[in-house]
DNA sequence: CCTTGTTTTGAACGTATGTCCAATATACAC
DNA sequence: GTGTATATTGGACATACGTTCAAAACAAGG
């Protein structure tokens, strides 16, 4: 996916230029994730990236193109990790419903926790895009292909159940996953405890979703 | 909760004035729900309400006050319906975990489907506020008191389990509920079916969440 | 009808926005 | 070095924003 569409160049971008590009997109990622599309101005991005305003347009195209690129940049890697995990699990032997959900949930959950601040920001961005109807087609392009594969896998595992049940399972699981990423503080607040450990959160999330999935599909 | 704080009047507002107020807040509710806070301008609201720009400020105060009021306006009624459902269920006999979740989920789910277009918009607004960290304290004020009661109820039902498990149960359930409201089209899309019936969606949601809750709490 | 308080209008304020363009600076091929 | 394509700067553009205010229209009590 090109940063600017129809970009015809005679020379390859310099190393410095590529670094600037990255700084701009990283800044956009953080701000779009934190404040949303409308809450983030091109000037905010320029300031965050420590760069002149015109440069944001020069490297990222107009605002909406930059947003699309920012969302799409890591979408491929995320999907790849999910599908890879699924393939590896399949190679090991027969799949269970729990395996399928784990392969879908774990990559984003782990990256958001241990993939550094940019992946943490990106996970929030995924939640933002998934929640807003305005980005519906963008979300379909970026995330639905992988999601379809996982629904297919669930259907293959439980061929006597309707596809609607598998689809609902995945959507509820995604929503709980994104809630875990964006609102784990809320669980802590309602629990009256201070910052429950990550592995405990992960276990609760997977237990909840696996049980729900088995109820719908068994 | 007053629309404008510290409003000192010598006369009661006229019927026409009250109707204008309602038109403005209803318009704000629709637009804030559809486009978010930053995506909605005061002029958008004025146009949607078919009213002069200055009137929005006059009736609603500044933008943030209007937003707070819009979110808060139906929060009380929603919480009341939830708590009422819980009390009625308790009066009937011993509660189950499934009962508690149903009492929490059903009011918003039913209102969003059968409460008219304004409640449908409000349900989306709740999802928007719940998802965005920026409205964290607003969400706490509007929704946490009722949520706490439901966590308390789960804890009372399963006193040997940690409060963190009950809190996680409720957060995951809320996220799935909001996903159901805002993204049921996504379930349909992944399922490859056209508009599954509301009652079927409701049953899938409750089955999923109840199973997850029982796994975490039993 | 006239007074008084409220609702509505019209229009302006300063500021922020996205986008664009001429200019300068930089990097690289020859 | 010289020339050329790219990267960066500075600054402008029209438009949109939230907010404010004086004046006009309105409602109601005396």
Explain what this protein looks like in three dimensions.
The structure is a homodimer of 218-residue chains. Chain A is mostly helical. Chain A has two domains: 59 residues, Homeodomain-like (Arc Repressor Mutant, subunit A), CATH 1.10.10; 143 residues, Orthogonal Bundle (Tetracycline Repressor, domain 2), CATH 1.10.357.10. Helices cover 78% and strands 0% of the residues of chain A. In chain A, helix 1 crosses helix 2 and helix 6 packs across helix 7. The relative contact order of chain A is 0.10. The model of chain A has no long low-confidence stretch (mean pLDDT 94). Chains A and B meet through helix 7, helix 8, helix 9 and helix 10 of A and helix 7, helix 8, helix 9 and helix 10 of B. The structure holds a DNA duplex (30 and 30 nucleotides).
Question: What tags apply to this protein structure?
Answer:
Tetracycline Repressor, domain 2; 218 residues; homodimer; 78% helix; DNA-binding; 2 domains; Arc Repressor Mutant, subunit A; mainly alpha
